[in-house]
Design brief:
Layout: E1 4-6, H1 8-16, E2 22-29, E3 32-47, E4 59-70, E5 76-78, E6 83-88, E7 93-96, E8 100-104, E9 109-114
Antiparallel strand pairs: 1-7, 2-3, 2-9, 3-4, 4-5, 4-6, 7-8, 8-9
Length: 121
């Protein structure tokens, strides 16, 4: 696949087109891998100007919808909240290969793609 870098504006414009679809989100931070499948209702952003330390993200991508998370034991559990948050910094790299987005942050890598199978009840 031909992966290309995006500006945050291009990323937002392309991701907005996925509203209403079932997506899979994979987060890889250090030795931690999380998998979430959600029916994406809408996308929004939040800015935190009152951060208490440098480890709190300045911006957050909010993926809103219902879904499930895969636990360590490969069990599916409902998401505890209707929003999946991805911390964003000015240094975040946005990439797209026409099938999936990759967000590379100082904390880890997030991959967002349209789910090929619908795991939602």
């Amino acid at each position: 696949m031909n992966e290309r870098s995006l500006s945050v504006e291009e990323f937002n414009e392309l991701l907005q087109k996925w509203s209403g679809q079932t997506i899979r989100i994979m987060k890889h931070e250090l030795d931690d891998l999380d998998r979430v499948v959600m029916e994406l209702k809408d996308i929004s952003y939040e800015t935190n100007t009152r951060r208490s330390d440098q480890y709190e993200a300045m911006h957050t991508l909010l993926l809103n919808g219902t879904g499930i998370t895969e636990t360590v034991a490969s069990n599916m559990q409902p998401l505890p909240d209707s929003t999946y948050e991805i911390p964003l910094e000015d240094s975040t790299l946005y990439k797209f290969d026409n099938q999936r987005f990759s967000l590379l942050t100082d904390r880890g890598t997030y991959t967002i793609e349209v789910a090929s199978e619908n795991y939602l009840p």
